[in-house]
Amino acid sequence: MQAKSQQLQIRVTPQEKATLKRLARGAGQDVSGYVLSRALPDARKRFGEIVHALSAGEDHRFVLAELNDLLADLTRAQLPDAVAVAPLQIEDLSPLLQNYVVAMVDQACHMRDVPAPGWGQDVPPLEAPYLATPLRSLRLHLLRAAPVPFKRRNIFVDSGVGARV
Question: What tens digit of pLDDT does each residue of 40-73 get?
């Protein structure tokens, strides 16, 4: 965990302060920890960490599998908040990985019937199709089997969020 080196001050009414203290005590946290856990939920933090790992050059297959696991495990209530903000490092990714992340988020949102975050529209789809295998005999299968959010991004894979090969 990164050391805290900054301070943030907010103004609240005496009633709001008392409510925050009561809620924090009920959650077994101090007020700062409670407010941070509400403002920066663990799922949003984890989403950012995974995208950072992609930008750090780690083996993208394993990192995308982690992203798959995170998105598949989030509930309908958790998902919108977890992906509401574009991770800072998304711009550091290759166009393929940017589109892959957006497609995964879009598919997870579609599966949970929640709106996809607007930041995905800032990532232009790939100009040329990306096929997950060089085998010509599987191309037709990929063109048919790819989930729609991936097809919109010009990415052709045989499974999406929630599936494991």
Answer: 668 888 999 999 999 988 788 899 999 999 999 8
CB contact at 8 A, 161 and 111: yes
Query: Among positive and negative, which fits the CA dihedral 91, 38, 21, 30?
Result: negative
Task: Specify whether the CB–CB gap between 79 and 108 falls below 8 A.
Answer: yes
C-alpha 86: how far from chain center: 8
CA–CA dist 55, 94 (Å, integer): 8
| CA dist., res. 49 & res. 89, Å (int) | 9
What average pLDDT does this structure show over 86-113? 94
- Rounded to whole angstroms, the Cα distance separating 43 from 31 reads 20
Show the beta-strand stretches assigned E in 81-154: 130-131
Question: Residue 95 has what pLDDT?
Answer: 96
Quote the crossing angle between the two packed helices 14-27 and 31-39, to the nearest 10°. Answer: 90
